[in-house]
Request: fold
Amino acid sequence: MNKFFLNLGVQPLANNFLKKFSSKQPTYNLKLYFNTKTKMVSISKRIPSSVMFNSKYPYRSSMSITMRTSFKKLSDEIKKRFNPTLLLEIGSNDGALIKNFDKKKVIGVEPCKNLAKITKKMNYKTFDKYWDFQLATKIKREFNSVNVVYSANTLTHISNLDNVFKSINHILSKNGVLIIEDPSLLECLKKNSYDQFYNEHIYLFSAISVKNLLSKFDLEIFDIKNLKTHGGSLRYYIKRKKNKKIKISKNVKKHINKELKAGLGNFLTYKTFSNKVIKSKQRILKILNNIKKRNKKILGYGATAKAVTVLNYCDINNDLIKNFTDTTPEKINKFLPGKNIKIMKYKKNILNDYDYAFLGAWNFKDEIFKKEISFIKRGGKFITHVPFPKIIKI
Ligand code: TMP
Reply:
């Protein structure tokens, strides 16, 4: 049974960056639910994939050093540990992972045509289609089976998970390995990062819910890794239950026990989280309003989908944060979804004109602090809402 625990209010589509601000853009009510049987946490609203993932999708994986480094490290590990003759990536974005592989040994699947075009141009085999059984059948016919299927920050975006795993099952070789990584529910609860939720993040996985989901497809987790990416993610290494050649690491049980101990299987945990989120809203508004009263200026740093959730939930407007900045070309000179706040092109020393920077991309804070050392040296301060709203002391 799905039980409601948090209402994050009326929200715009998180990646609907408009050239002209409009108060009439499409909205939905962002409500969070916990399934008492499957232990899955999800949002209630389902926006059609074709509305969210189209030829104008603005998110690019290669935009940060953190992500590029993470993908490079992983591709070295995959080659060493699994040595795949063929790897398929679901949601290959702009090729941040696949470009670390030999062109003959990888296939990308990316429904956003603007992104698929990038890897096609580099001569990487890319299907600009949604991942489903029809596509899996087509790929199987052409390439037979695949030894490694990889997917990062994609499966939680797809409503019909049964279809996703049925299609993976169809294409994965007998001894093949599936690797998925997505933001961790445990980390989200620990960090009170409610901004992990927006229309594209339909699910927030835990090892407990992934285990339950996989068992329907005779798949099981054999290893788990904690990652720092996207504010704390989990990488799940998955195999067929029948494959006894691969041993199950102790990490799996250890992690599941950690989640159980943190109460991820109990509804009450989510009610506690919900109360903390309400307090977080009050506190961030207090901090921003105090800065406004002192006539100091704040720039939003990183126009992330996460920032869209925060600004719209807390109703933070351009009297508090006048502008945002971002490095992604597709977001420049557009408006932060739902808000009359323009996103300016990032340039070195952009923070010279500001006293404070609100971390929209708090998950990249180390990378950002390194980049903005001169701002910090002249007394500039960063503001974050994670794990609780504060002005950061560096
Ligand atoms: P994400 O948190 O959804 O991965 O998005 C990160 C966003 O932050 C992306 O739009 C790029 C932006 N960004 C900057 O503008 N400057 C930076 O230094 C970093 C690391 C990210």
